[in-house]
């Protein structure tokens, strides 16, 4: 194993390894649902398994495994594995009858609960047969130290084709030399000028000084306690999925003068509100959501993790769905307006400074004991706009599966794809025994908004 | 959670928890294969799942979970769980087509690699459909701190019936009050007399002083190094199974003047020898096996872990199968003869004293770095003699799945049942990539012995 091929991890990536516990495995997943091609041979799924086990090349980060850490060195390093046991990483699985959403949800819940083997490249893939309606599924799990969910979804999409064809190339296949496809370093680049530093005190002012006429900028750690959403989590996961119609979301957004993301947050808010009310556990104050958003300037592809959080009120203290949507829109708007008022160079440092304490609490495991930084994380990630294919099989949906941590038992992430918003709910099994209902409620909340607006 | 219901673990049971690592999970498993009843309804397997998830009562050890350990207390304790999420513990799984031995072996290998969740009672059960030949399977995994494989197999057998019927009661169902069905304490009982102590020095003499005319009593740690069998293990497992005919084994044993166990060891020896020869890795000196045996006096049911090891030569340095069987028989005979020459009260302490260093090496994780105490562990456990049934489904086979540890990458265990010896091979995935061949070779070795003798 050449030392030249070892790569030190960034502090952020390393933290996903260092803070990982039995109760909070730090991997993300993607669940893809495909329709079998018309007249597919009976062995079609098997042929996907075989092709996935025999890539013609292997690209980063799929070939990276943990290197032994020399004493005295703080951060773990990764190196390229000499040999990869693809028969281990790629598994052929099956659902019991009737092969519906319930059976698929149970299998993915169990698969997502299992920690990755640290002696191998930190990913696995399950190709799953036995779904009803002539479908099959592929679930891919990768450690957050190797890839976040957004990048993972992109790598998967890049392995698919725009048209039905014969290519069954897996996401880890790469024709380019592996060493040249490294993940960009997450080390912060030195900014060209430090003038933005002088603007920072002003940037924080609205968080602490509130004036009656200015819109309220929600502070981190301003979330009410919710045992269901913010209690201690254990290692087992429960997942649920919902597919929302993007045209319907757009129609509602247009009528309400809101963004697609506002409507998505309102749908999640309605589902959470209904679920907590039914459990007699809705806090009097509104739930708050941490909403990750890209702070990358247009055309800047090099800066690594340029992701900040917007702190949004979910307005769960408001009964009327229309007023709730308006309040969510106003809360997001106040943050956006504030960010836009800042020097462009100050936006990322500002977002990082509000975001860092929340991340510190989450990855330290203290989350279940401290006041939560937010009640839930809700992401909305743009994905491919046009249908994609694996060989002749059409991709019907791609659901993100994410990471609950101590103090944040639920993650809701939506990925858009070919006219749909595919929403994955990932929860701690013990905290959220009826997670499936959230998915059902979200679908009903969208229909309700459509009827009201 | 009543403190009165907490139970301190014995040092031995606690060691299985304390020494557990990502690379060496400490659970045992049992794989049962059933034939579907004639004219079984299509939902038969589903009805087993449902019944297994709804026991009418729950007995020890199935309801025990780890209690938080107060600071300053050395040993972990178990207490009875107030609520058990049977939907978590009992899973409905399926094999991909064609549902043969290969697909079943791959699934069980992966299931046996996954550590148990320490926040719940330390067991899981998978009811598996999709086997060919109208069969289904049940795989049960339990932590060694709750049960060893022998006791686990007995609990499973006790839940089955002698005749086809309608009872689908799971092994964890118990009508008796749970608290009264505790595992007997493993704390050693004070012996009535200490006279046996004076015999111990004599008991050890043959291990160190060898005389030309006396049979050689094999010493612990007298095993040659074998990277394949005694190298470092990682967390992934590989399992293989073989069903041997007991009548055939008995016939061979009778002709050779050997015991059933001698023939079983000879079969394992032949398989190992052939496999290591093919890999050009057969040590010049014979491999040795640790063979667990009960040291319980007849009628003594109370003494807990009265298990010692016999240290047997596998005579892998001998080419002729008949001479190999004779050498194995002589090696076992020398130990047995020596044990029988001891005061009955000294047998268990003696066996414990030779066995303890081996256990210490194994559970400490030092096994991969020190000279191995033995090359392989081979157990032969008597099981039910007559066919058993789950409802109308006949149990066709029950295979043990065991624990590789650092320095001992392979375990071979046979359990007799209804005229067959069901042999489970459990190996470290990375050390033994062709484990399946061992199972095939074992079947062929039995046929060869039958033809020669």
UniProtKB/TrEMBL annotation, chains A, B:
Keyword match Repeat: no
Protein name per UniProt: diacylglycerol O-acyltransferase
Sequence intervals crossing the membrane: none
EC category: transferase
Positions of region (Disordered): 164-189
Segments forming domain O-acyltransferase WSD1 C-terminal: 304-449
Pathway(s) the chain acts in: Glycerolipid metabolism; triacylglycerol biosynthesis; Lipid metabolism
Catalytic reaction equation(s): an acyl-CoA + a 1,2-diacyl-sn-glycerol = a triacyl-sn-glycerol + CoA
Family: Belongs to the long-chain O-acyltransferase family.
Organismal lineage: Bacteria, Pseudomonadati, Pseudomonadota, Gammaproteobacteria, Nevskiales
EC number: 2.3.1.20
Keyword RNA-binding assigned: no
Keyword annotations from UniProtKB, A to Z: Acyltransferase, Glycerol metabolism, Lipid biosynthesis, Lipid metabolism, Transferase
InterPro entries assigned to the protein according to its UniProt record, in alphabetical order: Acyl_transf_WS/DGAT, CAT-like_dom_sf, O-acyltransferase_WSD1-like, O-acyltransferase_WSD1_C, O-acyltransferase_WSD1_N
GO biological process: biological process involved in interaction with host; glycerol metabolic process; response to hypoxia; response to nitric oxide; triglyceride biosynthetic process
Top-rank taxon: Bacteria
């Amino acid at each position: 194993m050449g030392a030249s091929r070892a790569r030190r991890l960034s502090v952020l990536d390393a933290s996903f390894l260092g803070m990982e516990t039995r109760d909070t495995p730090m991997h993300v997943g993607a669940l893809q649902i495909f329709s079998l091609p018309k007249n597919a041979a009976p062995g079609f799924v098997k042929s996907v398994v075989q092709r996935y086990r025999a890539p013609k090349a292997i690209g980063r980060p799929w070939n990276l495994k943990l290197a032994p850490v020399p004493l005295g060195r703080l951060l773990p390093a990764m190196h390229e594995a000499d040999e990869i046991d693809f028969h281990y990483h790629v598994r052929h699985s099956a659902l019991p009858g009737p092969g519906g959403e319930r059976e698929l949800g149970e299998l993915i819940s169990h698969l997502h609960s299992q920690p990755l083997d640290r002696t191998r490249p930190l990913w696995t893939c399950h190709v799953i047969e036995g779904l009803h309606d002539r479908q099959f599924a592929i679930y891919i799990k990768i450690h957050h130290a190797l890839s976040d969910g957004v990048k993972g979804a992109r790598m998967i999409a890049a392995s698919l084709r725009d048209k039905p064809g014969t290519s069954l190339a897996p996401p880890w296949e790469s024709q380019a030399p592996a060493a040249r496809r490294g993940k960009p370093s997450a080390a912060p680049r030195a900014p060209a000028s430090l003038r933005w530093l002088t603007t920072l005190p002003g940037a924080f002012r609205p968080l602490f000084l509130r004036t009656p006429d200015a819109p309220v900028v929600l502070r981190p750690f301003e979330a009410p306690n919710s045992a269901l959403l913010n209690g201690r989590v254990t290692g087992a996961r429960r997942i649920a999925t919902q597919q929302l119609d993007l045209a319907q979301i757009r129609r509602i957004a247009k009528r309400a003068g809101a963004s697609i993301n506002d409507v998505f947050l309102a749908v999640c808010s309605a589902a959470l509100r209904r679920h907590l009310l039914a459990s007699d556990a809705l806090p009097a104050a509104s739930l708050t959501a941490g909403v990750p958003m890209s702070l990358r300037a247009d055309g800047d592809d090099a800066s690594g993790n340029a992701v900040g959080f917007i702190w949004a009120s979910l307005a769960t203290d408001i009964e009327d769905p229309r007023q709730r949507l308006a309040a969510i829109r106003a809360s997001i708007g106040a943050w956006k307006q504030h960010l836009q008022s800042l020097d462009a160079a100050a936006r990322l440092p500002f977002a990082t400074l509000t975001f860092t304490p929340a991340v510190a609490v989450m990855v330290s495991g203290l989350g279940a004991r401290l006041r939560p930084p937010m009640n839930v994380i809700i992401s909305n990630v743009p994905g491919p706009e046009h249908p994609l294919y694996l060989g002749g099989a059409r991709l019907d949906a791609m659901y993100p599966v994410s990471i609950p941590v101590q103090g944040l038992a639920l993650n809701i992430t939506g990925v858009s794809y070919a006219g749909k918003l595919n929403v994955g709910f990932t929860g701690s099994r013990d905290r959220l025994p009826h997670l499936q209902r959230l998915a059902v409620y979200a679908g009903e909340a969208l229909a309700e908004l459509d009827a009201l607006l």
